[in-house]
Amino acid sequence: MPAFEREWAAALEESRRTFSLNTLYEVVHVWQARLASAPAVDAFVTSGHDETGVVDMAELRGRRRR
Predict the structure, then answer these.
(1) I want to staple 11 with a disulfide (CB 3.0 to 4.6 A). Which of 23, 42, 63, 65 is the partner?
(2) pLDDT per position in the chain (66 positions), as tens?
(3) Which residues contact 37 (CB under 8 A, 6 or more apart)?
(4) How far apart are CA 9 and CA 47, in angstroms?
């Protein structure tokens, strides 16, 4: 899992720098969502549906925080 390890290492460094656990919690939350949605994503990809007009999940999370 190089992507998780990379994101976790960056969050850990940020946590050390800021003395805040927020970035670590965010990485865990994002990866929990990715793992929970993986079966649905796999089913969608194998079904051959068109992805035109799909919104990035990270963009939606960013909108919600504002």
Answers:
(1) 23
(2) 689 999 999 999 999 999 999 999 999 999 999 999 988 888 877 888 777 777 777 777 776 554
(3) 57
(4) 35
Q: How many domains does the chain have?
A: 1
65 within a domain of the structure (yes/no): no
**Would residue 62 count as lying in a domain?**
no
Element housing 61 (H / E): helix 57-65
Distance (Å, whole) CA 19 – CA 13? 10
pLDDT confidence of residue 7: 95
Is 26 part of any domain? yes
Nearest to 7 by CA among 31, 43, 38: 31
